[in-house]
Structure formats: structure tokens, C-alpha cells
């Protein structure tokens, strides 16, 4: 789309074909939703430890482990923060692709066709962003958090530093204001738990919507339902877990039971994702039309390195092998007591999560590019 002359050029942007920015938006939408779900589950586990009841002892074995409690707290904070950052950056990537991004502000009036996934997705993005912002505010701010430590509290540390260097610095700066807002608005325990359930539903809808939006283009067999929505849902939860737990690993919680359990859960999700990808490839191979065959050719020819190497090998298979290797060394040997043993295990977990994130982005990139450059198949022709 070209810029429109006549003084309104600044309202219009060049609108290129779908490529890296849309792939980044689809990826960050999945990461945001998955990270929020991870945060909510970690908060639930911590609440079980605080209650010290029979359910906590069954699910967690021990509820008095301080390292487990610290890792739960860090995971919940990292997850909520990544949820906010992911949807913010992803939203910018989406808006930058639009020819008239300012028109997006009119969505409450114009977006009323709730039979369209474009409309549903827009409302889900807005509601999820509100939920994630409040969750992050309640987990990162409050008068009782001033004495707590943890790398996930870095936004609070940055604001405290800004408060200290401002010429008008006062005891009642930005951090004090956010602490007050968090303490006044933070809901009581059970209501907060109910709000997290609603946020979890919004998160899963956000992840699924990115695939449903593509699947609405029924002439593209590669984006067909139910394969692509299932793949994106599994990949979104997996990348969200990886992003949140990568933060926990950086915070020093790599060898905690929280990381161990989330890592194994992530492995199971990745295996299910591989099965779903295999089913989609089988469907395409058995669909005799030009679009399906062109997408397959693109995957194993033009995008072979990214799809086979980046998605299948280094984005899914290698992370699972790496995870199982580190888990066996950690749980069944005394490897961590050897020189550099703890550092190597921590590095193994970090490498696993980083590979999953790279694979998640490449998955969306090749899903997009292998389809948009393939012939369309019009039903009935």
C-alpha cells in the first residue's frame, strides 16, 4: 500500500507482505499467553505451600522447601512480566504492519462482528493485556515487597533508581505510587485466584486465536483446522513455559523442583507438538492439490534449513534430549557436586529453553512463508 498524499502521509505506513513482523507477532502472542498460564500455575503452587494442606503435600511432596518457594515466586513474576512485554512488543509488530495503525483505536466502535476471529482476537488481546498488567502490578509492587529479593523484581529496581536520580526526587516517587496502587487494588486470595482462572482462559484463547485467524483463510490447506490451531496452542504453551522458566534459571532457580517439573511438562508438550506437526504433514501429503504440494515443497526445499534444522531438530528434538539428559544427571547422580557441575546443569536448562524459543519463532515463520508464497486453491475449481 502506498502513502496517500495530501498531508495525511504520517497516518499511513507502507504495508508489506506478511513476513518477519507478522511471524514475530504470532510468536509473541503465543509466548505471552503461555507465560501467563505458567505464572498462574506457579502462583497456585505457591498458594498450596502457604496453606500447607493435604493437596499441597500430594502435589509438591514437601511444602517447607525455601528454594522451591523462591522458584515459585520468581516463576510467577517472570511469567506475568513476560506476558505484558510479549503482548506489548507483539502489538507494536502487528500495528506496524497495518496501513493505517491509528484506525485500530476505533475498534470498540467498528469491531462488532463477533463471528470473525479478527474481531474476537482484537478484544482478547485488549482484555488479556489488562489482565496481565494488573497481575504484574500486584506481583511486582506493594509495600511488603520492598525488602524482597529476586532478579524478576528488576522493573521495581529500575524505577527506584529513576526515583533516586530525578531532580524532584522525593520519598513519594513512582515506586511509592505504584506500591500504593497495587496495595489498594490487589484482590483477596480467593478472588485473585478466580481472576487468574479468567486470565488463563484469555491466555489460551489468545494463543489459539493466532492460528484460528490464519485458518479462516480456507483456501490455504497448510493452515487448515484442526492441525494448525493444535500446533500453535501446544507451541504457545511450550514457549511460554520456556520464557518464564528461563527467567527462573537466570534468577538462580535452575536446580529447584519447580524448574524440574515445569521442564518435564514442557517436554511432554513438545512431544505432542511433534506428533501434531507429523499429522499436518501427512494431511498435506495426502491432499492432491497444488497448494498443499507447493507448501510441502517449500518446507523441504526453500525452507528446509529453517524447518527441518531449526524447528524439528534444534527447536524440538534437541531440547527434549537435552532436558532429559540434564534431568537424569540432576535427579539420579551427584553430578552437581562435581567441579562446574551446578553451572553445567544450569547452562543445560538455559540452553534447552533458549532453543525452544528459537524453534517457536521459526515454526511461525515457516508456517507463514511456506503458505503465502504457494498457489491458492479455490474450492470447486
Q: Helices and strands: which structural class?
A: mainly alpha
Order of helices and strands: HHHHHHHHHHHHH
> Quaternary arrangement of the chains shown?
single chain
Rg estimate, integer Å: 23 Å
> Distance N terminus to C terminus?
30 Å
How much helicity do the residues have?
Answer: over 70%
- What's the overall average pLDDT, rounded? 86
SSE order and pairing:
Blueprint: H1 20-51, H2 54-60, H3 66-97, H4 107-110, H5 117-140, H6 154-165, H7 174-185, H8 189-215, H9 227-250, H10 257-285, H11 290-300, H12 304-332, H13 341-372
Task: Give a description of the structure.
The chain is mainly alpha-helical and 381 residues long. It has 13 helices and no strands. It has helices at 20-51, 54-60, 66-97, 107-110, 117-140, 154-165, 174-185, 189-215, 227-250, 257-285, 290-300, 304-332, 341-372. 42% of the residues are buried. Residues 1-7 have low confidence and may be disordered.
Features of the shown structure:
381 residues, single chain, 0% strand, mainly alpha, disordered N terminus, globular
Summarize the structure.
This protein is mostly helical and 381 residues long. Helices cover 72% and strands 0% of the residues.
